[in-house]
């Protein structure tokens, strides 16, 4: 099978650990998941027992490179086909896959073998598709042919020019929008207007060559290091390390296009939720950091508008954003894919939507969004922050972590509590955004909103559906139950009782206090970690490899570090400190005394009898 290299498609690489080399089956699974996620299922014709629409054919190439006799080749191909179909059998998209794998060679020769069978099967299945045999006006086909002719001369038309061509060929004006949408859906043109009477730049652009439009976007979202001018290299660094695209760089990469065309391109990218404009009146130096060497001696006044573009942010060891623990300051919701496949683009688009939404809020002192690699931080008001994070569990499952937190106020000992109206506002935003993204581009993805289980020893592994908590007073896990009043108070219709305002992390404390001997083995770590950090939230950057250690997490302000040197209990409540070596000496002495006593008793017994 033919697949592009990983480094040319970063989204694939991010589906797997960095030290993992993807197999052809994993590539195939990725692409089939992408197809399944981004298309909507067409209704089946009555009596059609074939694959669901749209159907997917799997074709293996380079057949001519299979070695062996004809019989040996047949056996190898049969084994490959069986391996592929068995691998896909439990996948959500399997009903769309044609249950035969075809193999063709890449040598120019008369068509034969599987190529003929493939062609016949394609024709057979296409005749059964629900959109076949629909009546289309002849004038539409004429306009399609005209668009194909114009494509050789130009890449786009204005809507006014497209309307003029349509009227000349007999297409009624009231049918123009429907026809343009059809041509867009089958890939002939690209048109993103919602109505034909708007003067909006987005509605006024009809792209005759969709590949050309893709190349235009690629110029912006592909970081280049080969700039001759120093100032443009600086601007690429700002985009790569801070996710900020400045207008001066836009004019540079889209040089040769009119201002109208540039605005149309930006509007389309906004429609795709690839970027949004920075509306907060903050200079680039404040966004990037006044101490940063990225800005250097750039003339900031000439950089123009700023746009947030998170999809090309690269890992930056020195700047990872805030690290939030499961403590009383954080309310966490997980966005979990039902079928296990989470497109990287979903996180980036949700981040763009969140950045745009927050900037529209009426805040006394608005703060610009802060973008990091796989993490976005936004200020909601004086008491709340929203953090979106691409989260990967220990088992490798991918999900988006939504954190609503109340950061400590400088100089104040009082802890801020979560405002239910703000939490509900965030929940509505998440719901509406996911619905918009489903409608726009990931039509077939199934997502659930869940919370971590605070009764479970591995809360990162076990979750509860958020909406199911609204209908229950208590939730059960491993024979234990805890109240759902906290979640109903913040996101549902609960009232403000003491139980409702108490963070459920208290159940973690009770669980560990009743079972303090429960230890989780990790790599040795130093005592610089916050006593409020929980074991599954300890960042790996703070772990060392000198020796093995065990860490016992008891709860808020209670953590035990055990290594070869010392047993340190940072428990503010009990203030217990034990020296590991002293206990080892005591244990050794007790063992020696026990042996001596045993020997004495044995001698006494022998003497008496």
Task: Tag the structure with descriptive keywords.
alpha+beta, globular, 609 residues, 21 strands
Overview of this protein structure:
The structure is a single chain. With 609 residues, this protein is α+β, with helices and mostly antiparallel strands. It has 18 helices and 21 strands. It has helices at 10-13, 24-38, 70-88, 114-127, 138-151, 159-168, 176-185, 210-221, 230-242, 247-253, 259-271, 284-288, 344-359, 420-440, 466-469, 485-491, 506-514, 580-608; strands at 56-60, 97-103, 156-158, 205-207, 244-246, 276-277, 306-308, 330-337, 370-372, 375-379, 385-392, 398-405, 447-452, 463-465, 474-477, 480-483, 520-525, 543-555, 558-562, 567-569, 577-578. A seven-stranded antiparallel sheet has the order 9-10-11-12-8-13-14. Strands 17-18-19-20-21 form a five-stranded antiparallel sheet. A three-stranded antiparallel sheet has the order 5-7-6. Strand 20 (567-569) and strand 21 (577-578) form a beta hairpin. Helix 13 crosses helix 14. The radius of gyration is 31 Å and the shape is globular. The relative contact order is 0.06.
């Amino acid at each position: 099978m033919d697949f592009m290299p990983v480094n040319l498609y970063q989204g694939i690489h991010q589906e797997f650990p960095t030290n993992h080399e993807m197999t052809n089956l994993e590539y195939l699974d990725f692409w089939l998941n992408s197809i399944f996620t981004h298309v909507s299922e067409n209704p089946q014709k009555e009596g059609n027992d074939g694959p669901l629409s749209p159907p997917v054919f799997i074709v293996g190439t380079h057949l001519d490179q299979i070695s062996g006799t004809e019989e040996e080749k047949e056996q190898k191909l049969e084994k490959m086909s069986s391996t592929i179909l068995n691998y896909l059998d439990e996948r959500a998209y399997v009903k769309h896959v044609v249950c035969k794998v075809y193999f063709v060679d890449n040598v120019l020769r008369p068509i034969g073998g599987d190529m003929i069978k493939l062609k016949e099967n394609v024709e057979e299945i296409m005749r059964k598709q629900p959109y076949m045999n629909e009546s289309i006006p002849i004038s539409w086909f004429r306009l399609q042919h005209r668009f194909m002719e114009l494509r050789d001369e130009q890449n786009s038309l204005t809507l006014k020019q497209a309307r003029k061509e349509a009227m000349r060929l007999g297409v009624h004006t009231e049918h123009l929008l429907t026809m343009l949408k059809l041509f867009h859906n089958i890939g002939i043109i690209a048109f993103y207007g919602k109505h034909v009477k708007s003067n909006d730049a987005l509605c006024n652009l009809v792209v005759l060559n969709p590949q050309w439009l893709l190349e235009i976007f690629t110029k912006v979202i592909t970081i280049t290091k080969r700039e001759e001018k120093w100032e443009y290299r600086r601007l690429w660094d700002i985009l790569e390390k801070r996710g900020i695209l400045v207008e001066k760089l836009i004019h540079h990469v889209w040089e040769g296009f009119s201002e109208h065309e540039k605005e149309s391109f930006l509007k389309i990218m906004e429609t795709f939720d690839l970027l949004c404009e920075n509306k907060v009146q903050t200079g680039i130096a404040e966004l990037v950091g006044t101490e940063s060497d990225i800005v250097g001696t750039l003339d900031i006044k000439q950089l123009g508008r700023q746009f947030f573009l998170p999809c090309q942010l690269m890992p930056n060891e020195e700047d990872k954003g805030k690290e939030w623990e499961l403590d009383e300051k954080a309310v966490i919701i997980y966005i979990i894919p039902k079928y296990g496949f989470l497109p990287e683009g979903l996180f980036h688009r949700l981040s763009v939507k969140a950045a745009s939404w927050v900037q529209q809020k009426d805040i006394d002192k608005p703060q610009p969004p802060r973008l990091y690699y796989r993490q976005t931080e936004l200020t909601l008001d004086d008491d709340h922050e929203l953090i979106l994070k691409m989260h990967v569990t220990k088992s490798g499952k991918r999900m988006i972590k939504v954190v609503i937190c109340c950061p400590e106020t400088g100089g104040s000992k009082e802890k801020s509590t979560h405002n239910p109206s703000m939490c509900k506002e965030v929940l509505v935003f998440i719901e509406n955004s996911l619905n918009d993204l489903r409608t726009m581009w990931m039509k077939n993805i199934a997502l659930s909103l869940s919370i971590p289980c605070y009764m479970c020893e591995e809360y990162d592994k076990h979750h509860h559906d958020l909406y199911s908590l609204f209908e229950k007073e208590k939730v059960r896990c491993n024979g234990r139950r805890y109240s759902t009043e906290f979640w109903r108070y913040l996101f549902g219709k609960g009232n403000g009782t003491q139980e409702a305002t108490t963070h459920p992390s208290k159940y973690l404390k009770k669980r560990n206090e009743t079972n303090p001997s429960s230890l989780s083995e990790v790599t040795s770590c130093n005592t610089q970690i916050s006593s409020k950090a929980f074991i599954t939230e300890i960042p790996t950057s703070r772990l060392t490899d000198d020796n093995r250690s065990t860490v016992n997490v008891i709860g808020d302000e209670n953590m035990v570090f055990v290594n070869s040197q010392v047993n340190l209990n940072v428990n503010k409540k009990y203030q217990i400190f034990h020296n590991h070596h002293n206990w080892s000496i005591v244990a050794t002495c007790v063992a020696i005394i026990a042996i001596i006593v045993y020997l004495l008793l044995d001698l006494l017994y022998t003497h008496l009898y």
